[in-house]
Design a protein that fits this description.
Blueprint: H1 2-18, H2 20-26, H3 31-40, H4 58-71, H5 73-83, H6 85-88, H7 94-100, E1 108-109, E2 114-121, E3 124-134, E4 142-151, E5 154-155, E6 167-173, E7 178-180, E8 194-204, E9 208-209, H8 233-250, E10 254-255, E11 260-261, H9 266-298, H10 308-336, H11 346-357, H12 365-375
Parallel strand pairs: 1-4, 2-4
Antiparallel strand pairs: 2-3, 3-8, 4-5, 4-6, 6-9, 7-8, 10-11
InterPro entries: Acyl-CoA_DH_C, Acyl-CoA_Oxase/DH_mid-dom_sf, AcylCo_DH-like_C, AcylCoA_DH/ox_N, AcylCoA_DH/ox_N_sf, AcylCoA_DH/oxidase_NM_dom_sf
Domain Acyl-CoA dehydrogenase C-terminal: 232-364
Keywords: Oxidoreductase
């Protein structure tokens, strides 16, 4: 099944490339494209065999995402968001999770950061607020949203909590959410990452969860950082596409002023080699950190069994993949010069997509702070979500 999902992703990638302009103009994935993704099995790739799922490793998930991003970044971004449904299911009560997700191809979208307000009421919570960056929310089946908890109008924290104000994740049906059609960014335009709101929606207690307490089968994917790992497959896939495009152009273009083909140009040769080296190093950094982490966790160990440098390597490799992919695409754009500037060139879209991807939380300086603080024995700002605490 693992190889089958990757095979289908490879077959779909050129279709996504052909439809990239349509996806971008639509500002969200067309329904037909969502179904094409669903047919690959990508939305169910994080479910384990106890669910009847393929149980792809983090490395295999990332390779699938890279492959889809080679076709279109927005489609791949929505694919990895939807695929995380199988990870969220591990943090819900398993009986409830199987009621909520009767099929393995349902999609959960939403913003995990606690941007809402959840007031305790008998049997659950009343959830209100506005959340940004709901990638794929228009085609989602369920929406998960982070919110701070209140009781009697006052901030609430569990006894013994190290936080003065606790937050949780709240799972609601898509039809209970009002989507605000405000997604009109520079790049990643087809991801439909709209804002959405809720006003007093009742969420039963059993439809809430935290990433600190997995409920399902233990293992490498029952970790608080597991839903962020494959995301870097998107910028890596775009960078690979840009590099291959440059090589294709270089083998066909002739420099009349120099009287030789681009493939014979010292400038082109050295820049292509330099960019390949940078890409290979960034990609191996991601997969190397994943393989080490996966080996420890699949053997029954915990993140505490990793050396500090090994444990920090994962979030640092994600950040580096996002940022270095943006640089790779930018330099490819410069290498092709004025041929890159037209909307008909894929370089234009790749430049804008990677610029927006590099603004994501996992590519921000606060990740450097969190990893650096951890390495120095201080307090990471985003320790739990990065698996550092």
């Amino acid at each position: 099944m693992t190889n089958e999902i990757l095979r289908r992703a490879r077959e779909l990638a050129p279709v996504l490339r052909e439809r990239a302009a349509e996806i971008e103009a639509n500002r969200t994935l067309p329904a037909e494209v969502v179904e094409l993704l669903r047919a690959t099995g990508v939305f169910g790739m994080c479910y384990g065999p106890e669910w009847g799922g393929p149980g792809l490793t983090s490395m295999e998930q990332t390779e699938v995402v890279e492959t889809l991003a080679y076709g279109d970044a927005s489609a791949a971004w929505c694919a990895v968001i939807g695929a995380n449904t199988g990870i969220y299911a591990r943090f819900l009560d398993q009986t409830v999770a199987k009621e909520v997700f009767p099929r393995l191809d349902l999609v959960v979208a939403g913003l995990l950061q606690p941007s809402g307000r959840a007031e305790r009421v008998p049997g659950g919570f009343r959830l209100s607020g506005r959340w940004s960056f709901g990638s794929g929310v228009k085609h989602a089946d369920w929406v998960t949203s982070g919110a701070f908890i209140y009781e009697g109008g006052e901030p609430w924290a569990a006894p013994g909590s190290k936080h003065r104000h606790d937050s949780r994740q709240f799972l609601v049906r898509r039809e209970q959410v009002e989507v605000i059609d405000n997604w009109n960014p520079t790049g990643l335009r087809g991801s439909g990452s709209c804002d959405y709101t809720m006003d007093g929606v009742f969420v039963p207690e059993e439809h809430t969860y935290t990433f600190a307490t997995p409920q399902g089968r233990s293992g490498p994917l029952a970790q608080p950082d597991s839903f962020t790992r494959a995301m870097c497959g998107v910028p890596l896939g775009v960078a690979r596409a840009a590099l291959d495009h440059v090589r294709e152009v270089a083998t066909t273009r002739y420099d009349r002023m120099a009287g030789r083909g681009w493939s014979e140009s010292w400038r082109v040769q050295t820049e292509v080699a330099r960019l390949e080296a940078a890409f290979n190093a960034a990609r191996e950094g991601v997969y190397g950190a994943m393989r080490r982490q996966w080996a420890v966790l699949s053997a029954g160990g915990t993140l505490d069994d990793l050396a500090p440098t090994e444990r920090a390597a994962a979030p640092l490799s994600w950040l580096h993949a996002f940022r270095s992919s943006r640089e790779t695409v930018s330099r490819c754009y410069d290498l092709l010069q004025s041929w890159s500037i037209y909307r008909s060139s894929p370089m234009d879209r790749w430049l804008r997509d990677t610029a927006v991807l590099a603004q994501h939380l996992v590519a921000q300086d606060r990740i450097l702070q969190s990893a650096g603080a951890y390495l120095l024995g201080s307090e990471p700002e985003f320790g739990i979500s990065l698996g550092l605490v």
